[in-house]
Amino acid sequence: MSLEESPRSRRTSRRSRRKWPQLSARAREMLPLIGINAVLSLLISLGVVVVWDALKEAPTATPEQIAGGTVTATLTTALPTATFTTRPGEPVTYRVQPGDTLGTIADQFDVTVEAIMIANELENPDFIQVGQTLLVPVGGLPEPTPTQEKTNTIEPSPTRPTDTPAPTDTPHSTMAVPTSTGTPTPLPVTPPATEPEVAIREILGAGVLDEEQVFIFNSGRAVRMEGWTLSDAQEHLYHFPNLFLGTGGSVRLHTNSGSNSATDLYWNLEAPVWGEPGDVATLRDESGLIIFTFELP
């Protein structure tokens, strides 16, 4: 067997020698990318380690630092929605809306009807008016502060014993000193109004549609005017709606058109009513009883 290389072996050896230079060139091209990736991976790892160590070594604020205002906190979460609560015993102001009753208002604020009546000095639970402002005693009525009466006690001062003088025939006069009982004089109390006193005070702008108005005032007990009527000599008739007129309250009845409110009512007519001299305005209650008449000059 000859020791010389066969032609096939020589071709394989030459092909292998040609392939090695190609692989070395590709490796040289990849070396920068591999180095950059290695450096980035190292920097990321170092950053994670440094941040982790800083978080573990961060000092915990003590209650003394928080109380002294030496700790600065950064909020990164959303603030919660604030909920406003009413302190017990603090009344809430509520304006009466259409359709409200004392019962619905009491249920809304979780109080009793009696508590609302006491807080607002109401006599009838059915007499409330749209637009009226009520005090709602949320948490209960405030308890009255008890007053302590001070009693002044005068103690006799100690005196030294003296020699008793011998009795004589000279008469001694004795004067009685009046003693104050300390009873205060009661103040006069004005009795509350027992009957409604609704009256027509004046009629303004007579004969002018956009200015005509009847001014009605209640100087007595509160009254509900639902079913009441107002008429003139020409048989124009107005029916009052469900209106609550409190003590000292007033309402204006306009002849023209508009939207009713707690203080202003509208007849919704297209011509004036009170243009005739000597015309008489008659106010009647729900039973037809004449409450007040007003004669125009």
Q: What would you say about this model in short?
A:
The chain is an alpha+beta fold and 297 residues long.
What does this structure look like?
The protein is an alpha+beta fold and 297 residues long. Among the domains are: 8-58; 92-136, Roll (Membrane-bound Lytic Murein Transglycosylase D, Chain A), CATH 3.10.350.10; 198-295, Lamin Tail domain (Immunoglobulin-like). It has helices spanning 7-57, 63-68, 102-109, 113-120, and strands at residues 92-95, 133-136, 198-204, 213-218, 223-224, 229-231, 237-239, 244-245, 250-254, 264-266, 280-284, 290-295. The strands form four sheets. The protein has a four-stranded mixed beta sheet with strand order 3-4-9-10, with no helix packed on it. Strand 11 and strand 12 (290-295) form a beta hairpin.
Distance between the termini: 157 Å
Q: What global shape is seen?
A: elongated
Question: Mean pLDDT, rounded to whole units?
Answer: 75
CATH architecture of the domain at 198-295: Sandwich
Strands of the biggest beta sheet: in what spatial order? 3-4-9-10
Instruction: Evaluate the radius of gyration.
Output: 49 Å
- Looking at this structure, what is the CATH superfamily of the domain at 198-295? Lamin Tail domain
Assembly annotation = single chain
Class derived from helix and strand content: alpha+beta
| Element-level helix/strand string | HHEHHEEEEEEEEEEE
Percentage beta strand: 15-25%
Features:
297 residues, alpha+beta, Membrane-bound Lytic Murein Transglycosylase D, Chain A, Immunoglobulin-like, 4-stranded mixed sheet, 4-stranded antiparallel sheet, 12 strands
